[in-house]
């Protein structure tokens, strides 16, 4: 793609691919686990903000303009903290000076939160639409908290203005292309992990839980443990996507965390096909490209076009575009809940 797309369009494609990570997670938890989460933006935002905190601290200590600002105000804090009269760097920001902490944190923290949240709910037999409402409410709460704590989160403006990554300027030639290839490589890893889970015994148990949870419980398994685990896997995928998004776009914002982006992630999976891992990828690309095309050409009505696209797919292709490809290729059993 770098050979046929401009740097701007390549950056947009990389942005769409970042949203494919949570879409793959939604295929795992919704399509195979029967868990409809409307709050994957929570974990996408966690990854995004943790990466942003590391990048912001690195830029604050290495960028010449940030250093000049620090000397002028007599503070070594990130600029948005200076504007908000914050006196000292919050203790929970301190570890993000180090990438060796940031990287595992982006994996462990979302996984822990997701597992505890899911296990406690499913242990109490809270599932279905009630779990969807809980995740939706948490996404809204997280967005409100981020906006309300402007001094330490950047508020509605988010955290922006990153200069370097590992000392390499984002403006240097070839950096954006390199980040695109990193995103593609990690997306392939995510697809392989998802394919491995679906094809394993875990995947078969998840399908059994989705179809007849009571029978699985009577067989001696703990459905809450399995559902909690797969929900944690989906959370990690969302977090990785969020971190890559911040690297690609240079932004961590509450607009990535709330209700709207969380529902959009479900739309990506629904359009591509909730039983297809690769469908989640081209669902994210198709919807993302559609948003760009319609917003560029129909500024006032582009949201209606996106809504219409979603309704058409749901009405005429309830299993997403993947089912259409199955019909065209004669593959009749790929969406029966069996591995692709």
Beginning-to-end CA distance, first to last residue: 26 Å
Q: Rg from C-alpha positions?
A: 21 Å
Mean pLDDT: 84
The percentage of residues in β strands lies in: under 5%
Biggest sheet, open or closed, and with what strands and sense? 2 strands, antiparallel
- Strands, total number: 4
What structural category do the secondary elements indicate? mainly alpha
Percent range of helical residues: over 70%
Counted by DSSP, the helix tally is: 14
What is the overall silhouette?
A: globular
Task: Report the order of strands and helices.
Answer: HHHHHHHEEEHHHEHHHH
What is the topology, as strand order, of the major beta sheet?
Answer: 1-4
Q: Which regions contain 5 or more consecutive residues with pLDDT less than 50?
A: none
What is this structure, in a nutshell?
The protein is mostly helical.
Features:
2% strand, 340 residues, mainly alpha, two-stranded antiparallel sheet, 14 helices, globular, two-stranded antiparallel ribbon
Give an overview in words.
- The chain has 14 helices and four strands.
- With 340 residues, it is an all-alpha fold.
- Strands 1-4 form a two-stranded antiparallel sheet.
- A hairpin with a 2-residue loop joins strand 2 (164-165) and strand 3.
- Helix 1 (7-32) crosses helix 12 and helix 2 (41-62) runs antiparallel to helix 5.
- 41% of the residues are buried.
- The mean pLDDT is 84.
